[in-house]
Task: structure prediction
Amino acid sequence: MQTDSSFTFVLFGGTGDLSMRKILPALFEAHRAGGMLADSGKIVAVARHAADRGEYLQWVNEHVKPHVSKNGVDETAWASFLERIEFVKIDLGNPEDFTLLRDAVKDLPGIRVFYLATGPSLFVPICRALASVGLNENARIVLEKPLGYDLKSSNAINDAVGEIFAEEQIYRIDHYLGKEPVQNLLALRFGNALFEPLWRREWVESIQITIAEELGVEARGDFYDNTGALRDMVQNHLLQLLSIVAMEPPHSMDSDSVRDEKLRVLRALKPINPLDIGKVAVRGQYHSGVIRGNAVPAYATEPGVKQNSTTETFVALKVEIENWRWAGVPFFLRTGKRLADRVAEIVVNFRAVPHSALGVSALRAGANRLVIRLQPNETIRLYCLAKQPGEGMNLASVHLDLAFDQFFREGQMEAYQRLLLDVINGRLALFVRRDEQEAAWRWVEPILNEWKASNKPPKPYASGTWGPAAASAMLAQHGTCWLEEEN
Ligand code: BG6
Result:
């Protein structure tokens, strides 16, 4: 991926956690790899917590460097990376300070990117302040999630930002879309004739999408307690994955063709009937337990979390898509913190053969399934039945594996690196369009409302397990179970 387009990348929240862990390391990787960032491209960090450029670079050395290149830092590349960085001290509460930013960037080359790695309450004030000094023109703006708390608040942000930036200037990040395996899912589906004919209700019995984490809420208790797993993971990451799994083949890979198809899926999600919520949605909250041999505390005792909090840290859902391809096929979604393993994967369960001349084992549900492991260890695994060696015709489950790190030893890119390069190069396909975001909120909101109205606490689960038993019971009603791969 080469670029000769120069850029000025303005990073708001320059000393924040996201800048430290993800954004600056991703920019460094792109810089180190060579040929991805124009030599003249500049990074302008905006923050309050450093006095000047020298102090900011010191902070970058201390805090960002530990997060770059797992295999050690290339010191020459690191030194030249620091040369790209400028610094502007701005108090975001003071719009007048933005003249400092205007002066700092006025002679810098290329397209301007404003990356808002700040809380959402600052999105609108920052955009307005940028407009007040004319910096919105011909620029791109990147908005981090969470973009709002519900449809109304997300619309309020989108309306206000939309008065200042046109939709084609707005890059809403969902970092799951930048993950290599998610790209691979598109390649698998639309680059191979093999799978597409089977990718429909006639051959698919059910689909599972899991994003499981071992981590708890870490230092984000305060934020998380007002958010919960449905807003934090389902409204965005899981529904985005679902839309990619279920979408029709796009006419081309240009931004709007892909996003139009994803939108059609989101709009076709069967609305959840509040009376059915107990059958199709499970919410849970972690209690204390053991993860990899270490005792971990209950959610309710985490710093920042309210006593007796009823915020969910686990969600499992049965989702249906009302269109010809998927009518009647359940999509089971699941996400949670403090689960038994860190894993993100998609499992496509194919139907059993219609008639078996080989005994009942060939009629077993799930005998044919395709498992797309997004993380860790990106793999695609196809399960089939084969004859066990020896006498008689006994079938056993075997699998074909495609382990990506064995085929492609180089060129793997972190999600943020890919997405930042896309912003700099003006590629919108992997960013969420406003109408997609609205459709996702529209579908999720009745669940949030119903949970709130019913006032029932989430179901407890011990840390280090796969969540509340009700999540398994939901699948059992459909004659299936959650399928967890060995790591
Ligand atoms: C973020 C959520 O969007 O995604 C976090 O806010 C979550 O709560 C994270 O931990 C998971 O991302 P990844 O890439 O580590 O699977």
Observations:
- The mean pLDDT is 93.
- Residues 145, 175, 213, 232, 344 surround 6-O-phosphono-beta-D-glucopyranose (CB under 6 Å).
- The first helix runs from residue 17 to 33.
- Residues 177-414+428-476 form a domain with the Dihydrodipicolinate Reductase; domain 2 fold (CATH 3.30.360.10).
